[in-house]
Every structure is written in C-alpha cells, then in structure tokens.
Amino acid sequence: MTTSDGVNAVNYLLDRLVRPEIRIRRRTFSAFHLCGYVGLVLAVTLAMVLVAHRGLSPWVMIVVVLGAVGSFFGLAMLTKIVTGKEDLVYYRHEIAVIVVATALLGLIRQPILAYLDGTVLGVGAFLACGRVGCLLVGCCHGKPHPLGVRYRAEHAVAGFPACLVGVRLFPIQLVESVYVFAIVAAGSVLAWTSDQPGRGLAAYVTTYALGRAVFELWRGDVERPYVAGFSEAQWSSFLLLGVVTLAERSGLIPEEEWHAGAFVGLILAAVLVAVRRRRRRVEHALLEPRHVIEMAEALDRAAHPAVVPGSVEIARTSQGIRVSTSTIEVGWQRVRQYTLSSDHELTEGVARRLAGLIALLRHPLSTIELVPGSRDVYHVLVRPPL
Fold it and tell me: Count of domains in the chain?
C-alpha cells in the first residue's frame, strides 16, 4: 500500500465515522452529548478508583464530583446568559473545577492534592471523550488539509459552517483526544505509584498545556478570541504552566525539574512563532482561520453571481483579496480560472499560497497552475483530474 492509499483509507474511514446524531435502538441521540455522558462516567470511575487506591474517603470524592459537575453547568449557564449562546471552553471549565474542588476540600479540611489528582485526571478523561464528540459533530475542527474529514450538509444544519461542507479538514479533535487519553493514562500511573500527592495533577496540567499550545496551530474554527496573535487557549497554557512552575518552586506541590524547563521552552517557542509571524504577517493574516472562511465564502459568491447569470462577480475579503472565476478553453480542455488581485501588493509567493488554499477548499483532486498576469494579478488554472 502506498502513502496515498493509506491517506485515502484514513479519509474514507473518517468520512464514514462523523455524524451529528447516533441512533441506538430506534432512539436518536446527539453524538456530542452521548460522548459527554460516556466521558462523565469514565471521569467519575477513574477518580473513584484513584481515591480508593489511596485509602481516601469515596464520600468526599462524591462531594468533589458534585461540585465539579455543578461548576461545569453553572459556568455553561452563566456563559449563555452573558453571551447569548452556548460556548463550552475547556480551559475555563478546568480552572473552575480546580478552584471549586480546592475550596470544597479546604472547607471540609481534607487533603487537597490527594483528591485533586483524581479530580483533574478525571477531567482529562472527560475531555478525551468530549473531543471525539467534537469530531463527530464538526465543532473545534481543523484547517483544510489533504488528510482529514469532510463534513456534510447535516452537520451544517447542526451549526457547522456551510461554506466548509465537503472541504477536507485535518482531524485535530481526534489527535487531541488520543493525546489526552495517553497523558491521562500516564498521569494515572504516576498518581497510582507515587506516594507524593499532586504529581499526577502537575504532570497532566503540564503535558496538556504543551500539547494544547501546539494543537491550536492546527485549529480552523473562528469563534475564539485572540490576543497578540495567540488564542485564549494558548494564553491559558502559558498561564497554567507558569502557575505549576511557581507552585513547585514554592513547595506547594512536588517539584519536577522538567516542568520548569517545559515552561521556559514554551515561552521561547511562542516568541519564535511571534517573530516568524511578524516577518510573514501578510501571509499569516491570509491563512488564519477567519480569512480561510472568508475565502471559502468569496469563492462561493464568485462562482454563483447574484446579479446576472453568466456575469463575472468579484468577491472581496476583509484582507483586501479580490477573486473572480470563469471557465476558459485551454487546448482541448475546459479549465476553471480564478483571478486573484489585492488592494495591496500581491507577491507570487502569497498568490501561490492562496492558490493552494483554493485547491484545498474547492478542487482537492485537480491540478493547479499559477499564471502571473499584469500589475500584481494572478490567474489560478484548475485542470480537471485525469
């Protein structure tokens, strides 16, 4: 089997897997909610097993679980009241659970770190299952990529961006799910074998922060705030990794030298990313998730003029990219042609990246050719697949 055959097989399996609803014995369930229920059961089971292994009170753990569940729904309800829509942000809930659990354990005078190990690792197990739900319904999706999943019209009905229906997107939800399952398993082994409470907690928070900071680079959904080019989740990763390092240095939790190194390494990596983006700020702005969505919508508008059938419509994005489309004869072939121009200077390198984006969005199996025009105008010729 060639690499191409392997990619096609993975793509086929992913396409068959995703669905917004799951039918079980004539009953239909939301795939996202069903994965959430499974995750909750797994989270509670893991927390109770770790607590029982340490000889701690299961009743105290039940109180912590109820507090954690209450904080989850309370924060979700508060967010909906404030923003007017349901918006589940993992890091906000993780922090809320840690704060509520710590407060409850301190109030009833119980060993905080011993119970927090099971609590936070349980939250990780819940997240790992939740990301499977994200994959199935299409939320928290990745960027356009040759290896990935295509969502259908039924997903658009459930809230997935209609302009990305049929576009292959990198399955970052699945990658994160597998990663989180792995670090939860490693953290659970550490908590099970160590006589120092807090090591499982610190290991999970540190490794997840490192992974999440990287996963954000592959995310393609747009409904998330950014500050100075970094997402809320990336800033949360910096913050939590810094808090863990400070707590270890202060003796509040068992110290692991590599955690401080991970924090410094993550900050240095962020600085390098920021410098690289500054050098390529035009290209970065054009390929960020929000502009990718705009390009997909612009391609649809250009392909289906709302004025007069047969006319050429020039669609424009917020970054000043103008695109139009037509069909031309090249030899014996009818070729789709996209014309790219910009309010600003459009270099050949940027035009080539935009041509690649057009291919991923609308012509993944076709051959793309970039032809320079006059005055920073470029033509993208799409030849049909053989």
Answer: 2
